[in-house]
Every structure is written in structure tokens, then in C-alpha cells.
Protein 1
Amino acid sequence: MTVTANVEKQGYQICRRCVVDTSVPGHDFDGRGICGYCRLHDQLERRYPLDSRGARQLQTLVSKIKRGGKGRKHDCVLGISGGRDSTYTLYFAKKILGLRPIAVHFNDGFGNPTAGENMRKATQKLGVELRTITSDWRESKDLRIAYLKASTPDIGTATDIGIATALYGVACKERVRYIIFGQSFRTEGISPLEWNYLDGRYLKSVHKLYGTFPLRKWQPMDGGFNLTLWPMVYYTLIKRIKTIPILYFTPYVRVDAEAVIKRELDWVYPGAHYYDDLYQSLMTHVMRVKFNIDRRRSNYSALVRCGQMSRERALELINAVYVIEDPKVIDLCIKRLGLTRQEFDEIMSLPPKTFRDYKTSYDLIKLLKWPLKLCSKCHVVPTTTYDKYFKCG
Amino acid sequence: MSKKIIKVGMGQLLVEGGEPQRNLQRAERMIEDAARRQCHVVLLPECLDLAWTHPSAKTEAQPIPGPYSDQLCQSAQRHGLYVCAGLTEKDQNKVYNSAVLIDPAGQIILKYRKINVLVVGQQFYEIGNMLSVVETPFGIIGVNICSDNYMDGLPIGHTLARMGAQIILSPSSWTVDYSYTETDDPYGEKWIKPYSLLARLYNLVIIGTTSVGVIVGGPYEGKKMVGCSLAVGRDGIIGRGRYNEFAGELIVIEFEVPQRKEKGTAIGEKVLHPDLAHPQKAGRL
């Protein structure tokens, strides 16, 4: 199966360096035909160099984390999903950097069993304590349906917020000040804001309009799906928990990392990128069919920029429907949500919207532009938070 | 009488609600794994086809024998070991929470329908009306299911013991609230107490294997299964599964099959021995 090529559409443009095209919000092509995401990538490359300066930055950071964890069982919290990036990050943190992480997994009922096996094997082989934070299925199911009805492309927002509060909650409980996660701008890119807008107030307004099951209240160690302004202030400014994208500081090459974890941790490929979560199958389908969004444009562009994939190969792959859109798994997701096919089709036919159609904290975030820049720089919030809100559409 | 050593695989299986093919494929891999690790018997969880109290029980349950049990029978035969598994059984217009014991030739040698069905489960499952045990080269095996071993359901275990069971296999689906984590003791005394009581009283081994996974449908949404399967003999715990809620694991235990000489009223006489009748006084509890 092939997707309709956009090349014939009027006003169509594709970046001359990567595969970001006019379907990607925030493409912002310059006079040379280079997109805003490539320029952002270059800025990040300068901020996180992979030469001796980068090695020194990493060493300083690791020393800080170790110092902060002195006398405690763990010195950092590390989010894992059983996918390649997080599994390698766990290996890297424990075996290469000598950190003492507690691995935290957020289980919202859609985990890919292969990824689950990967987590079990990795934590056992590395001797890392695993903490699983499970959502109340009634809440997470309700939120997924609410987001589908809200008719916006960012239908994974609830999971992203659940992951964040799970990590912050365990950090609070274990009195750990560093959270490590396995995202890298070099291999994953930064998604456009409209594709993945993370905001606790937005979740609340979608839930208020379309939810049917009450959400439990926020508690520091049990955040649930609450990540509005106050919890963020509590975690980042009062508890002073920092988030570290450790892979930014190291030459992370996917194929090499995969070989390492296969050899050392008996890791098995879950079937596709993001496929540690079965719901990604349905998300990818909804995004493509309803919103004409192909997240691979963002992901593959990142790999093209850092030489881990050729531009030709990226274009060739994007021309076919992503393997993650497995009809059987899409059916599984619909069934698991308790929806009929007809109900799902009705949801698919709702007019597309974005987060801008709902109550959010976006105006406040825009007012806080400069404090947010400072917080990003100091790892108080994830490093790319500022870039995401102000440079990605 | 010569000592009989038996190796049992406790197949703590990931069970996804309403996904029989995916669950059965995993069960088959677990059986294969158990055979590779030279188990004589593999014990799989309760309702491993559709998951316990999943609404699909009403529409997707199959007869026994039927396609799901056939798949397990073929697997038992292919790998040459006993398989005990819980399945959702359809019998005309009724559905039962059942368990089968399959021999290495792939024949169902015992089928049991759960009796002590929880009230929340009664909208899905009818109550069984029969208990049985079966002779095997390893001794007499009895089968019951999960909450049959509740303290208030123990007459079922007592009866199996009176029927001569040396081993009781119990496919289970032990649930806890979603908020539990690896730092919690999921069951406390809930299972150890009744298991120990039966094991000590009758000198038998009782094994319960639970599923793992989040409950994604039905009246028990908000709960999950986290493993920690259990095997108990007269002298205490023989084996225990690890805490996990998203990945299955095979736990292999090996033990000497208890020899039980007493039959009929002689069991009652033994049970009335002060050490067993009042273990607290005798310092055994």
C-alpha cells in the first residue's frame, strides 16, 4: 500500500536537507529551502557537542548525579518502556556511567508484550530495581476515548502526562533529584507542537468535555494524570527535580545501540519504533488518515540530519504505510477501549481540531517564555521544552 | 514405595483481556519453554484464553473439547508433558470457568468447572457441580481454580485431599488494586494461609499459578494481576513467582511427591491428631 504523494499539491515544499515538508507545522523554510527543524537541530548540536567538550559536560553531569545520590539506594530515576532507546539508556547509565538508577515503567494497559519481556530481562540482567506505576485502567481508557472525541492529533497526551508524573512521583518517593530519559534529538527529532502538545490544563479541559470517569486528585507521589502548573512548580522548583536527556551527550547510533542490547540484554525488536506501546498502532493510523500526519517525517528527518539514514531511504520508507499500522492491533485497541467499529468510525469522521480549540495554558506559557528558557537550560524542565513551545510551530 | 520427584513449571502467563489467539500463542511458547527445561507438568493460569471476568466470556467462549483446548492438547502432545490450564468453557447456552489437565499424549484426562465463583464473576460463569482427581505416574492430581482455595471455600480443597490428591493444581488469576507496586506485599496471608493449612493437614503439595496483566474490561477494571504464584508443601513454601505485571515468566520447581498412606476415615483420624488439629498449641503455626 502506498500513501498519496504530496508532491503534486500546490505550494508544496520539502526541505532540501531532511524530509520535513509543508505537512509539518513549523516547517519555516528559509531562502535556501532548509526547514526550521534543521536549524534547530544545528543549534542543539552546538549546545550538545559530541567532541571532548561534550564528554566533559557528561562527566560533570554524572559526577553531580552521583554526588546527589550519596548515601541513598539510588541516584537517579530512569524511565523505561522496553523499546530500544530506553533499554540502551538503562544499559548506558548503569554499565557505562556507573549510575545507580531505579527503572520506572508506566503501565497503562497497552504495553507491547515483547517490550515487557525486554524490560524484565534488562532489569534482571543489569540488577536494576524496577518500579511499575500502573494507571487506573478506568481513567486511562476514559481519557483515550475523550481525546479521540476531542478530535485532535495529540491523542497520546494522557500517556505522556502519566509517564511524567510516574517518574516525578518515584523521584519524590525515593528522594532522588535526577530523572534520566532516553530521548535524543539526533535520532528522534522534536515533534511539532500541534502533533504532541503536553499540558495538564489541556488534558483537564478535554476530560471535562468528553470524559465520564472522574480523575483522582494529584498527590506528590501519585500524580495520576495531573500535571498542571502547581504540580510542575512542586516537582521542579520545590523538590528541585531535574530531567536529563543523557543521550544528548553521547554519540548515540541506533544500529550500534541495538547490537549492544541484543548481545548483552537479550533484547528483542518490538516490531517498529514506538511499538513498545500497542496503542501507537491506532495513534499512527488516526494521525495519518484523519490528520495527514506522518510522524516518521519528524523521526527520519532526525536520522537523516545526523547521518544515520540517507534522505533517499527516508523518502522511500515514507512512501509506504508504516508497518506499525497493523490492522489486527488497531482492532485490538478499539476492542480494548470497549468501542465498536461503528463508534470508532464516527469518531474518525469528526472534524479535525488542534489543542488551540481547547482551554490550555498556552497563553501563560508564552508569557513565561524567558523563565522557561532558563529552566530548559538548567535541566529544570526537559531541555527541549523551550524549543518545543517556541520553535516548533 | 519409591520416591517420585516431579518438576513442575509454574507458567505465570501474560493474559490480555479478550485476545484468545495472542494468549494461546504465549501459552504455547510457555509449554515449549517448560518442555525445554524438562518439566513433567506445566501449570498455566485461570481463563488464559479470554482473561478472568472479561466481557468476551459471553460471546467468545468455546466448548471443551474445542478449538482453544485442542491447541493446548496439540502442544502438550508435541512437547510430551502434562498441561494444566484454565479456559472459559461454553456448554450450550452456559459458560463455565473451567480447567483441564492434559496428558503428554494430548488427551484431556480431567476437566473441572469452578465452584467457588466470586459474586462479581457470576454474571459470566455458572457454578460447577463436580470435583475429580486423576491418577498419573507421579501420583494422584486434583484440580481446582483460584478462589476455590479461599478460606471460606476450603471444603473444596479438603474434598480433593479426601479423594486422595497428592498434588492440587490451581490455575488462578489473583488480583490486586492498580496502585500496587513492587514494594508492596500483594497478598499478605491471603493464599499462604489456606495453602499451608491444606498442605500441612493432608501432606500434599498445592500449586497456584496466576496470570499477569492489567484487567481491561468487566467489573474488575482498576485491578491487575502481578504474579507471585505460589507452591506450598507440608514443610512450607516450595516455590514462588516474581512480581511482574507485564511480562510472563516460567518458574520451575522440583519436589518429592508426598506419599499419602491414609484413606477414607483414616484421614479423619490423622487430621484429628492434636498436632494437626491444634497447630497453634503444638507450635506449628
Protein 2
Amino acid sequence: MDIRAQVSMVFHLDKCIGCHTCSIACKNIWTDRKGTEYMWWNNVETKPGTGYPTTWEDQEKYKGGWVKDGDKLRLRLQGRTEGLGNIFFNPNLPTIDDYYEPWTYQYDELFNAPEGDDQPTARPISLITGKPMDIEAGPNWDDDLGGSPIYASNDVNLEKLTDHEREQLNEVERLVFFYLPRICNHCLNPSCVGACPSGAIYKRGEDGIVLISQEKCRAWRMCVSGCPYKKTYYNWSTGKSEKCILCYPRLETGQAPACFHSCVGRIRYLGLLLYDADRIQETALADEANLVQAQRDIIQDPFDPLIIAAAQANGITTQQISAAQNSPTYKFVKKWGTALPLHPEFRTLPQLFYVPPMLPVLGKMKDGIYDSSAVEGMGQMLNSLEKARIPVRYMASLFSAGNEEIIKEVYRKNIAVRLYKRAQRVKDITAEEVQQALAIGKTTPEECEAIFNLTSLPTMEERFVIPAMAREEAIEQSLDPYTHKPAAGFGYREAPARRF
Amino acid sequence: MGWIQDLVDPKSRRWEEFYRNRWQHDTVVRSTHGVNCTGGCSWAVYVKDGIVTWEMQQTDYPLLEKGLPPYEPRGCQRGISASWYVYSPIRVKYPYIRGPLLDFWRKAKAQHSNPVEAWGSLVQDEQKRKRWQRARGKGGFRRTTWNEVLELVAASTLYTAKKWGPDRIFGFAPIPAMSFVSYAGGSRFLQLIGAVNMSFYDWYADLPNAFPEVWGDQTDVCESADWYNSNYIVSIAANLNMTRTPDVHFISEARTNGSKFVVISPDFSQVAKFSDMWIPVKAGQDTALWMAVNHVILKEFHHDRKVPYFDKYVKQYTDAPMLVELSGDATNGYTAGQLLRANRLAHYAGVENGEWKMLMMDQQSGAPKMPKGTVGFRWGEKGKWNLKLEDGLDDSKIDPVLSFLDKHDEVLKVGFYEFASKQQMLRGVPVRYVETAKGRVPVATVFDLYMAHYGVDRGLPGDYAKSFDDLGPFTPAWQEQYTGIGRETVTRFAREFARNAELTGGRSMCITGASLNHWYSNGLAYRGPINAMLFTGCCGVNGGGMNHYVGQEKLAPQAPWATIAFALDWTKPPRRQQSPTWHYVNSSQWRYEGDFTEYAAVPPNAKFAKGHAMDIERDAVTRGWMPHYPQFDRNPLDFVREAQAAGAKDDQAIIKSAVDQLKSGKLKFSVDDPDAEENWPRLWIIWRGNAIMSSAKGHEFFLRHYLGTHDNAIAEERAQGKTKKVIFREPAPRGKMDLVIDINFRMDTSALYSDIVLPTAMWYEKNDLNSTDLHSFIHVLGAAVPPVWESRSDWDVFKAFAKAVSDMAPLAFPEPVKDLVAFPLMHDTPDEIAQPQVLDWTANECEAIPGKTMPHLRVVTRDYANVYNRYITLGPGARTDGMSANGVQIHTEKFYDELLQNPVAVSPDPRHMRCVEWNGQKYPSLEDALDACNTILHFSPETNGEVSHTAFEHESEVTGLPLTKLAEDTRGVRMTFFDLTRQTRRLLTSPCWSGETNNGRAYSAWTMNIDNLIPFRTVTGREQLYIDHPWYIDFGEHFASYKPKLDPHKTGDIRLSPVDDKSLILNYITPHGKWHIHSTYYDNLRMLTLSRGIEPCWINDKDAARIGIVDNQWVEVYNDNGVMVTRAAVSARVQPGTCMIYHAPERTISMPKSQVRGGRRAGGHNSLTRTRINPLQLAGGYGQFTYGFNYWGPIGIMTRDSHAVVRALEKLEW
């Protein structure tokens, strides 16, 4: 047993409003510099849709993540015989067209245009060439484009649907979209780390945050190809790859990452998980249908004295253990099982989990008249798994490597929470109906209350249980904090730059 | 997994400092965004190296009561991109003037030592004037200095006031709540010089006319936390994700708590994603759906079965039991008329204001009784204006009879006109007879009339629906043809909605957005769902009610703010203009249409509802219903001087002279001949807004008639011969405005088209206050850095204007002068009982009596030399006249005197207040924005507990109700600007607002009325189902009803525009967008990057395929009003037959030239719209139908009724 601490995340998609405040919080602070214009460490996608970079989920095209090769894992990027010997060959990199060509506008025309016979206007110009350009793609190009014949219809996850089901998603009866915010998953088994020939990428010991050393990076860009989520990016100005750093300077000062803090839908949760690093390989090698359960299993009970002892033996502090015990992500992921990893079949063991969204019940169209096919009876008025607008198979493609039963379990439980709470407030649901919903949802009144409380009522402090980072101890390893204090901010070194 | 090791080695990790250094910053300052979005979010602005770097949300809002989710964080994608603006390439850093004007001005100055004369020499030279007008919007800006601009501003202001009158000078800034003091600076300056403030809320079509109609209130809604208290939430034509971004979490949190959420929206909108049930109603047909909902509710919850809660509610809080007089005969049927008035009965013949007191039938006595709380009690004896069910004469109890179904004298056939089928339905209504001075008259209750109006079968004879499947109005089956929604869905929805209200005591709620209000019959669209909520007791209940969120209309500390903003401390009355009617008239858009009945449905044989809207608008002005400036065809300063010269000794004589001359025709209202040169607006000052693009319905007509520059409209003029009263001049004047000044921090469309652009402080560079209706906190805009480059705060800009005008005043007005101000009959004053009938003095139907049958006339003094001194000090009127808001009067002497104790101090301070002395007199200071902020906080019942207590004392006297208890617990609370920079604070319970917020209770409209029996500010004092203004009866809107959607062939948007098989005519919808707040942020690179670099035209996939358009292809969108060029976004989520361009793009960004309009630069979204007015909404002189600034009048509607042609752009040309 090798117990380690991982800062993990839950995004509650039922609450996501697709506003992108998170994206800009991040952009303003981290990627508003030369070479980073096209980077969106945090982005939000409309689903069904093709995302950013376009169709990133298509590993036939991009070859990211791990594949199970017999009883071993290997990077999809490398064939059986390839490997470090082939590092100059990186054919699966997304191109700038897969992202987008960043642009600005000729704003100065509006001030400086000489008097003419028509109104000046600020044309778009490329931030790469400086010349006027036609905007054909952007970091959020298919925003809200549910029902788009080009984007929504080409979502990779729709491959699991029948032709009829796919067509229906463009009809008023089933038309639907929802949002998928994405940041680096800070995986337990990160393929970016596995792919980096320079050893520049590492997981931090104290919190599991995955970082690319701006000192060691040598621009191989294998991390870009290797990450199946396409969450590392190459900075063409500094010649270093960069990625989400989970705002560690904020975490280290007890503040949630900027995208978490700014999340106005209040969808985000952050907390510590304790996991058994000895079991990473077996977890990542689980059969597809079992991947979600395997990921739950690797997370350890922070109240278990054996786990606590093992954690302490590994140098995990009492404060961290306490944070793990209070962790909201532990509840969603492990205790309630309602938050699921995104594309577990990539086998990187992502530490960002999603609660799938409730969506409106489907309708029926007859002779130009639309009727909502809500199930009958006041007790059933709220929602229905059976009449959900989007097929369970689609959600299973996103969140459970195709295991539909896991998706259904999540929905049944979340529907039970709603019915239970409604029965409390409005007497239009019978006790029998509630009992039935609880039984189907495999839940209890106590659990419903707990899920409700953490979903509806949490303060910032309850959503973000930030473990103490023991900064003095980290600093102490290189410099006595007493000496560091007066020197803090004066710096060790220069900013990353091309040195070749 | 050998190579994946956790790393703790400190040396390898030293580089981590790179990102740590970026995170470091020097200071964090609280501010917010002065933008019209309702967010009212408190932000932390980060400053590093003296430069604003980024912003994050503040997270220190006090919690509300236990069990409610917290508010924070508040802030959206747009707000968090604001820091981009501060140093951006679109930032206005210096003053600019367009070249031709600057050259003329400098030459004129060289020729004239008196700058006032220099300006005169320019505007009198028509060639020169045309020259700089034609250049508007076409480049050629030159950097200039503040001093040069200030001299020009002062010269043009004084010249215009002297030559034409100060009421030819106009200022426009929207929505003060987003930055109170920035608005107040401009309006204070304007009012001190006698100029005119333009309204905004109605102009944006944000004003829901149904709120004045039903509640006598501009708008009042619950804060977003109260959504969470609801168990059944319906979103109608609202897109909460787009527009209420920081509040939407309450919806998902309520859903987890078991609330049902229904979204009624034509497109699968962003908020539909949250719904349990999405109802894709056809665009603009919501009213039909709600008519059927009400049919179901009345049938099943008021007839088949009585719900005690509903029954009690409608009796006490609505006009449902009130008696309506019927007239007519058995052969042709009866019609419902006005409410029966108490003075018609012998028993009440002598009561005060008996014409304005109504009656209910009392169960016990079997006789009509006169309940308290009606408008006659409001403006009469004190202490009886309340909702106790007691007789106003003898205090006896009243047990109101809701229906005469069980006990009636007769069943009469009453006519109900159905507009869609144009049929008169005759339906039996149970009546009782009442003896009046003029004999026995049949009366029915409002309730029984509504039962008949909705066609609810109660076994009475006539055209009643036999079942919900009956196709007659207004059944679930009937509505299918309009809405496209099945009867089963509608019936089910109605039952769920009402049943939920029954079980929860009214916790069913509707949330509406602009889209519903932007249709022609907006009042009816709202009264449908409002009826549903009144019949189910949902209004005035936490978790229930009609919640219209459009525009940040709630400036919480209204009373002291209004005093400062409209300079009421120095001079009254202010000149405040209703903008929709003003633009309809002055931008000459009335010339482009015929009679309004060409497109609007009115009943047959209407007396008032006919003719050209321009003529009706003229009548509304002469009757005192609507304001109109310029007032008269003469300079009001000249008029007074001439009247005095002719012997008028005092103000009364001057006014009499004006009345006489108006009667004789020697003096004319400007509105009689708006295109005559002496009636034009001349100067236009725009600040905090985008008056020429974002809100300019009929933008191209603005360019033509206001600015005199190029435009892309091809519409034909059609009013000639149609107006019978208003003069149609030929040719239409082009370029009415002598000078347009824009005060801005971005070079937006309005700036680009103005003559002068002045740099103003951005929101992170000034001190100000902010509040909203979406939450109940007040907080600040704070200066994180001083105004950058040469920018100044709005307060300081107008202070500089005031100084320049005062300094130059001796050249034009060496002495104070008298001004004659005309203004309409006003809401929340005794004017509410001025006109029981609709009469026209110009047609000799009545006497011309100012303030009664015609506008008020008042003589005031303008002291131009002291405009500056007055600007920077709080005048004595603030002490003697008190302050008021929403009809509540506050005595202020002691609070004013407290301020006079402060020293005359030099430096402004966020904590300390101070005084200023001039002419040997000491006044409270308004010299700095901080002084203004603290003065507002000091006098406001919402931020000073003692003021609240004082105001409740007065309210207790007025109503006879014990109300001071509401302010006891917070009596000691005070707030200063400094306090608010430390933390956002919750507003106190105040009689100026209708919701009680003590102990963390969520604010919800009318809860204070319902809990305490405080009347509504309507004719009946109740929530009004029935509107008995003769004007409404004539227009057929006395009942909530359905009027058909306008026929695009009749509105005339597409008469001359080419349409072929490569183009489609689509209903052009402009909902609020995701990447901008109106036009603000539209030019922000962050937002443009996350969208498509442009605001596309959204079009249905099948529609697009029909005309060969693919996603991201360039398209032209055009009609006779103008053209826009953009790219297509193709999606099945858009309803076929419609296209959407989210409001409001700028034509400054990425706008190619139009091919259908001859290669000229295409325009913006408002290039396709036009200003029209619904004359119904001119109604005045009667209860809640009296004028209030941004409270009542026609709105800038019909944006949703616009149609446009869409086709592929043939050639992309820049």
C-alpha cells in the first residue's frame, strides 16, 4: 500500500450554464501572453459537439492516452516497437487549424481613419501573420450549436448511436445540448508524463498536480500528442509546453483555482483524495466496463485507521488527512458514486469527475403540434430517465466507457433526491412514490439530504476544501523559511525562453 | 508505471516560482461594472505595477436566511473580461473632435471674441452645418484638449438656450442603477440649465406595461434567491443563462430541492437545457397559451372546485369582487364598462372623492359597500388607504361576494370581442341591479365577467366552451392553432401550476425576459400569466409571482438619488422626456407609416383606437398624458419675458397668458408640427450608453433625421394625408442636431458618429454606487487606479461642463431668467384623480385647466451663473421639500441639518462628509463623487435605518396601519461609502419598496403589501385584473386577452426590398446575447474570441438549406429600414421561420459593405428595426395611468414584430 494525496475535482454538469467565466478567469491570469494566445487551459464545450481542438476525443486521429496491450499499458502514440527511439517523429500533433488562428482587430482605424465617404470599421487581423484574415474557427466555435449539422452531428460520441437516434437529435422532440467544461485532469496515470522524452513533466508529491517544468521542457511536444484530452499546449514563443497548473500559487495560499473561484454556476468542487499508488497499474488495466468502478476502488477511505496510518507513513500530514475526510469530491465520487470520470477508456485515471446533467424530457410531434411526453402523475412530474432527451448510450460514451448501467444508477439516484425533496416541500408526491424512488435509486433519506445539501446549499468553503500545503516545509527543503521570507519575490531565475 | 513518480525534489521545482510571480499583485480594490445587465456583481480588481491586471469576484456577500443558497460568486464571462478594456486599443484616451467642425470652430473663434456668438455663426450657416453633419461617422477625428471642448460645449449650450430654449438640449444615459452618481452628474447638469433628460427603461422596451397596469408600479420583482423558494418555476421568453448569468444557479439548486422548472421558448435556448419540460411555443404566441391556462385554472380551481386559499386571495387583494357597470340591451347584448363609483349611490353621494371610490357587494348586508384603499382614499382623508375589508364610510366589515352565480337578479348576455377570429361572443353573465342617482343599473363582478370572458362553462347560456377540446376561445384546443403546443401539454401544465400554488400557498412563479415584452401587444402577453398568478394567489408571496427581469431598473436608494440627479434640491419640476414617443416624433419615423390600425387589432367601432399614432400622441401631449419637449414653438425663456413685458405681473399671470395663447393658437405645442425648424432638438449629450446604435430602434432614421449623414433606409414615407392634426412638412428635415457629444471610454458606434468624443473613466477608475433587482445588496464602484490618460469620471465631466457654462454665462445670461416648464399629470400625486373621462380641451370638450385637463405649467428661475455652485452643493429644497420615491414621502429636515454640522473641508473622504460655502451660505457638499455617494447613503431609507423609520411613520399615518415595526430592528444601521468598500451590505426594509427583507428574508415583490394590507398604487388599490380606463375599454384591453401576432405584410418592413428564390423572409428576433451586455463587451477581444469574432445570424438548418446557406457563410440581412451583414450560424435549435441576431452588435467591428444597398457600409441590428408606438399605452390622467419617468408610456416595441430578408452575401467587400 502506497497511500498518496491527490487534489481532485468535481464538475456538476447539471449546474453548468456554459458561461465561460472560468475560461476567462484563467486566460486573464495565465495565458494572456505572447505564444499563449490560442491556449485555453480551461475551456467549455457544447455537447454534442466537436470541441477544442476540434474532435479532440477522436484518438484514431490524435492517438492520445493509453491502450491496453495484453496485460500491459502502452501509449497509443507509440506502436509496439516504437518508443523513445522515435521521438523525432510526432505526426499526431494537432495543427493550428485544429485549434484556431488567433486574431485581433484593426481597432485603431476607428480613431485614425481620415475623413472618407463611408464609415470605417475594424477588420479582423491575424495575431500570427498580422494580416487581415477570415475567421473560420475559434476556441469555442460550436458554442450552443446543438442541432448543428456540422458540429453537433459530428460528435465522436454519437458513433454509438443508431442512425435514427442521431437524426432525432436534430428534431424538436429530442434536440438538446449541454456544456462540458474541461481543464487538465491531473491524472493519476498521466500519459503526458509518460510521453515526455525530457522528463520535464511531473506530479507534485504533496497534491498530485501535474506540471511541465518550464526549465526542463525541450519542445518535443510529445505531451501534446500524448494527452488524450489535448490539455497541454505548445508555447511557440518560449519554446516550452504549458498547461493548467491548477493555480497552485492560489492553492498554496488557501484559495481555490481561479476557474473554480469564478464559477458562477457554482458547479465546481475541489477536495483531497487518498489513493493507493500501488494499484494504479491494475486500475488502468481494468476492462472497459469496470473502469469506473476500478477508479472508485483505488480511492481509499480517509477514515480507515489503516489508511490513515499508511498515509502518515508516507508523510501525509494530519491536516491533509482531515481535508481528505472533509473532501466534497470524496463524497460525489466514492461515497455517492454520482460523479464520473471523462472518457475513462483513455486509461489515464483522470482526477476530474463529472455529475451528468438532467435534461428535459423528450416530446412528440404530431401534425405540427408538439406535446411534451412527460410521464403521467404529479409524483412523476419532475424527470424521467426513460424519457430523457439524450440517449443513455451517449452519456455512457462520455463518462463510463460505454457502461450504461453506471449512468442509469447515477440518474436514478439524482432523480430520487429530487422526488424526496419535493415530497418534503410539496405534498403532491405520495410516501409510496418516494419509497419506490429511493429503492430504485439505491439511496436513503439521509443520503438524499446529504447530496441535496452539497449540491444546493454549499458555501465557497464547503465546495472547496483546500488542503493545507505545508509551504514552510516545502520551502525548508531548499531554504530556511526565516531566510526565505525577506527574499520572497526577488526570485531564483528568469522566465522561460527559447534557449536553442 | 515506473516513470510516473511524484516529485518532491525542491531543486527541480524551483522553476515553479515562475507562475507564483505572475500571481503576485500589489493591491486589490472593490469595484463593479457600470453596465446595464442587472448583475450588480461585486468584483475584486487586481492591480500590479500600478496597472489593472485582472478581476475576480468578491465573495463576501452576507448570507440570507438559513436554507437559502449563498449568492456568491457573482460575476460572468463579460464582467471578468472588463479589465481588457482599461488599456485596450479601443479605449478613448483623449478628447476628439471631427476635423471639419474643429476647423470651423477655430476660425469662428478667431472672428468672434464672444464664443457664444462664434457658435451662433456656425449653426446659422447652413452650408457649414451640413458639412460637419455629413462627415458624421466617416472618420476624420482629431485629438483636442479638454479646454477647447469645454469652451465649445459652454458656447453651444448657452447659444441654444438663448436662441431656441433650454428644452432643445437633451441628454441620454441609460439605467442609473448601474452607476448612480455617473448618471446623476449628467442629469443634474441638464436640469440645472433647464434641459431635458430622456427616459430609457421604456425606450428599451424593458418597461413591462402590465406592471403599471396591474400594480401601479414601474416594476417590482423578487431577488434571485427567492427563485429558490419556488416549487414551480416557469421561464417565459427569458434566457437566464444569457442575461441572469450569476443567478441561474438558484434554478438548478431549486430543482435539486424538488422544484419543477418549465421553459417556454421557441428555440431550444440555453436555459431550456435546465428545464424539466420545454414548451417550444411558436414565436410571439405565448399569450394564447396563457389564455388557455387561465381557462383551465378558472374551470377546475374556481368553479368545479373552490380552493379556499385562492378564493380568499382574490377577494382581498384583487379587484375580482368589484362591481362593473354594464350597459346595452338584451337584443344587441351588454358591454362591460367602468367600475361603478360610490358617489352614484345615494348612500355614498357626499363622500370625498366619491368619483374615485369603488364598490363591492357585501355578503351579510346584501348591499354594495365601499371598501377602503381605493385611489379616492389615497388622495383624501388620511388613514383609510389600506386593504382592510372595511367600509370607508362607517368602518363596518365587508364580506365580498365574488360571484353572483348563486344569487343574481338576472343573467344578461354580455358581448366579448375575440380579436383573432374578429367575432363578438355573447355570453350569459349573472348580474345584480343597483339603484343609482340615474336609475337602476345592472352590475356584475369582475370575477363573473372574467369567467365569461374566458368562456368557462358554468351552465350559463351563450357561447361557452363545452370542454377543453372545444375549439372556441380560450380553450386548450383553441390555442393549438397559434402556439403549436398540444392541448394535453397545456392542460397538464395549467393543472400542475395551480395545484402547486394550492399546496404551497402560492409558490408558483413566472420569470420573464425582454423577448416577451418586445411584441406589439406586450401588455397582454404579461397579463396572461399575471392573471394565472392572481387567480392562484401567487403574487406577493415568497417563491411566487411575476418576475420580469429586464434592465437594471432598481436603483434602491431612489429618493435621495432622484433629488440629486434631477436637481430637485434647487429647482422643480424637472424636464423629463418619454423617449419612445420622442424618438417616434423627432426622428421622423412617424412619417414612414400610415394609420396604426393597418397592423394593430382594435375592436370595431372604436372611438379612440383609430387614426394615425402621431395624431394620438399629439392628443396625449395636449391632454397632459405624456410629456413632450421642446414644449412649444417658442423659446420658453422668451415667452416669459414677452408675457412679463405684456403685463404679466406674477407666475399665475404668465401661466394664464400661456393657456390663453394655447387656446387661441398663438402659442403652439411643438408636437403639432415637429418637423418645423423651431421645434427640433438641437444638442444631444450621450453618456454611459450607446444611443445611436444599441438602443436606437430605427438607427438608420436616426442617421438621416438626427445626424444628417448617410443611411441605408429605403422605406417610403406614408403619413401624408393620414395625420389630421399634426402637420406633415415636405421635405422631411435631415440633420436636426446641431451638435452631438458622446462621453465614453470606448470608441463605439455612438462615439464614432458623434461630433465630439470625450474620454471618461472606466468602471475601475471611479467611485460610485450600484444596486440591482436581482439581489438585495448595495455595493460600490471603486477607483482601483485613477482615470487613465486624460479621462475623467462622469461626475467630474459634468462638473467641468457646469463650470464652463457658469463662467461663460455673463455673455448670454448676465442675470437669472425665468423659464416656463410644462409637464404632464404625474403618478403618485393627486393628478391620479384628474380625469375620470377622456376629454379634449382642444376640441372644446372641456375647459383648458393646467394640471387637470392639460399639462401642468410652472414658472421657474434659471441661474446660469450659479450652475456650478449649485451642482457642487445640496440645495435647500432637499430640506424643505423632503424626498420621495414610489409615492412615499420622507421628511428630511433633521437629516439635512445633521449634514450642516460637517466642516467645510478641502479633501473628499469616503467616511467623512463635508460642507461647501458660496455666497456666504453653507451647504452639504456634492463637490466630489464621494460626497454624492455618501449623501445618497445618508438620506436613503434603504441604507439609513433612522430614515427608514421616519418614512414608515409617515406611511403609517397615510394608511392607518402600524408599519414602523418593520423598521425597529434596523433603526440604528448607517452605511458610508467606506463601509461598502469593505463589504457589500444588505439593503434595509423600506416603505419605498414592496418587499420586506428583515432577518434575511428574500426580497419578493408585494410581500409587504400582502402581509400588511398596504394598497397597490392603482385606481382600486388592488391588483387589477380588470382595467376600466375608458381608453382601455375602447382598445379592447380591459380584460387580459389575446390579440393576433402582427402580419408582416402589414407592418411595412418589406415593401421595397428585393425578395427572390435565393432569399427568405424571416421573423427577425434579437434576444440578449451571450458575449455582450447590449453593445458593451461586443468589441472586447475576449468575447469576440470566445464567440465567432462577430455576432452571427442564427438560422434554422432547413431554412438555411432552402437558400443554400451553410454555417459561417456571409449573409445579408435586410429590409426597408436598413441592412446588416454578418455570418450564419446554422442550427436546428432555431425555430423555422425565424432568425436571431443577438442584441447588440456594433457596426464598428468587422462590418463589411452591403451589396443590396449599393456597396455602403452595412449597419447593426437596429438597422432593421423601426420605432413605432402602441397608442394604447398613451393612456393617462387616471389612477395608475398617469405619467412617471420610466414608469408609464409606450415602449420602444415591435423589435420582435420585425421581419427581414436573409440571403447569401454576393461579394465580400471591406
